[in-house]
TrEMBL record:
Residues 250-405 form the 2-C-methyl-D-erythritol 2,4-cyclodiphosphate synthase domain. The keyword Membrane does not apply. It catalyses: 4-CDP-2-C-methyl-D-erythritol 2-phosphate = 2-C-methyl-D-erythritol 2,4-cyclic diphosphate + CMP; 2-C-methyl-D-erythritol 4-phosphate + CTP + H(+) = 4-CDP-2-C-methyl-D-erythritol + diphosphate. It holds the Pfam family IspD. Residues 1-249 are annotated as: 2-C-methyl-D-erythritol 4-phosphate cytidylyltransferase. Pathway: Isoprenoid biosynthesis; isopentenyl diphosphate biosynthesis via DXP pathway; isopentenyl diphosphate from 1-deoxy-D-xylulose 5-phosphate: step 4/6; Isoprenoid biosynthesis; isopentenyl diphosphate biosynthesis via DXP pathway; isopentenyl diphosphate from 1-deoxy-D-xylulose 5-phosphate: step 2/6. The record marks R166, K230 as: Positions MEP for the nucleophilic attack. A divalent metal cation binds at D255, H257, H295. Its EC number is 2.7.7.60, 4.6.1.12. This is Bifunctional enzyme IspD/IspF.
Length: 415
């Protein structure tokens, strides 16, 4: 072996994905789309970004080799990985695919990472841990997680034979790192003695049992990652769903209501704010229930989703809106916002009035608005202020409210 051996990776993408076949209508999981590219491409990019990596061997199903190689070439043109690569046909079992991949490694390669394309989320930090442990002299390195379930060993009739000591167990992942010549020897032995294994490390372990000096340093475990799960069952497909990008949006609302005077003839409503009746307050002139706060809020919600204004949806000359609870306006505006991919995250409301005094009611208003919008209390703020006897609120002729609503909107609803 040369003084500083090259590190290459074998990326396994030759499986048939039988456990997922029904859910994917027969499509092999390693080729399912993830962020617009085939799944295996994610691992290729993560591996290639490591400065230590000198090249990649892709192992594809024999029956699709040409097609997949052409696809890969296109991806390499679009997003050059800056590394030499090769594509080779896989075999029947995983270990056969690894063996085929090993054969394609160049002479200069002294260390190899073997990675399942079905684990797209391995992080660079995890791969570095594997490489560092290899550097320190292990023959094999596997990322592993402590086991949280109690594990029992059973016979073919499901009779429990023994309960294993959980503290001494690790669930192992890939990439697994190896001294190349040790792994090659292990694969030769596996072929000769017909070992049937589910990972490469177990071959090296067997080799070490048989011939201890053939795998100096043995196999060590470094911390794995929960996120580095293997896409295996239909439930795992959820992880591949595209995350809808979201954009922060805001909406502003403003409303005024006049207090009823002695000479007024229009409909006078008892004051309601945020859906809460305010006793001993001036009557309000209004077609609906006159809830100035919920009207401002409705407008702000509509503002978040390009929904026009309250008058567009609930005209004040329409009979059905007469003395109507303004909570309905808020709920309908919120439903429209949802329809347009907009989710309210917080609201900040201010009531401006000389009378009545609102301090004692603020908390009650807040609770009611939070309940109405199905938001946590922490996401609803209510303020009250006067205008220092200035203007129409200062002269106690009316009340106004302003509302600011913050929301997240699905990016595809913004085009
Ligand atoms: N793999 C491979 N060649 C095989 C079998 C598996 O390259 N003959 C690869 C898979 O593509 C996958 C990894 O090994 O990236 C781990 O295997 P697994 O999760 O078992 O995938 P499949 O064998 O494809 O799935 P299943 O066992 O459900 O058929
Ligand atoms: Mg399999």
């Amino acid at each position: 072996m040369s003084a500083s051996p090259e590190t290459w990776a074998v990326l396994l993408a030759a499986g048939s994905g039988t456990r997922l076949a029904e859910a994917t209508e027969g499509r092999r999981k390693q080729f399912l789309p993830l962020d617009g590219a085939p799944l295996y491409w994610r691992s290729a990019r993560t591996l290639a970004a490591l400065p230590a990596l000198r090249g990649l061997v892709f192992v594809f199903p024999e029956s699709e080799l040409e097609q997949r190689e052409a696809e890969l070439r296109e991806w390499m043109q679009r997003v050059p990985l800056g590394l030499p690569w090769q594509a080779v046909p896989g075999g029947k079992r995983r270990q056969d695919s690894v063996r085929h991949g090993l054969r394609a490694l160049p002479r200069e390669c002294g260390r190899v990472l073997v990675h399942d394309a079905a684990r797209p989320f391995a992080s660079p930090a995890l791969i570095l841990r594997v490489l560092n442990a290899l550097e320190q002299g292990a023959s094999g390195v596997v990322p592993g997680l402590a086991v949280t379930d109690t594990i029992k060993s059973v016979d073919c009739a499901e009779q429990v034979l023994t309960t294993l000591d959980r503290a001494a167990l690790r669930a192992v992942q890939t990439p697994q790192g190896f001294d190349r010549s040790v792994l090659e020897t292990a694969h030769e032995q596996a072929l000769t003695h017909e070992w049937d294994v589910t990972d490469d490390a177990s071959m090296v372990e067997r080799l070490a049992e048989q011939t201890p000096h053939a795998a100096p340093g043995g196999v060590v475990v470094v911390p794995g990652e929960e996120i580095n799960m293997k896409i295996t069952t239909p439930a795992d497909l959820e992880r591949l769903r595209p995350q809808q990008p979201r954009q922060a949006v805001t909406g502003f609302g403003y409303d005024v209501h006049r207090y009823a005077g002695e000479t007024d003839t229009g409909p006078v409503r008892s004051m309601v704010l945020g859906g809460v009746p305010i006793p001993q307050a001036p009557g309000v002139l209004a077609h609906s229930d006159g809830d100035v706060l919920l009207h401002a809020l409705t407008d702000a919600i509509l503002g978040c989703c390009g929904g026009g204004d309250i008058g567009d949806h609930f005209p004040d000359n329409a009979e059905e809106n007469e003395n109507r609870s303004s909570a309905v306006f808020v709920k309908e505006a919120q439903a429209l916002a949802r329809q347009r991919g907009t989710r309210i995250v917080s609201v900040d409301l201010t009531v401006i009035a000389q009378i009545p005094r609102l301090g004692p009611h603020k908390e009650h208003l807040r609770e009611n608005v939070a309940r109405l919008l199905e938001l946590p209390m922490a996401c609803v703020n209510i303020k009250a202020t006067t205008e220092e006897h200035l203007g129409f609120t200062g002269e106690k002729r009316g009340i106004k409210a302003v509302a600011l609503v913050s929301a997240l909107r699905d990016a595809d609803c913004m085009q």
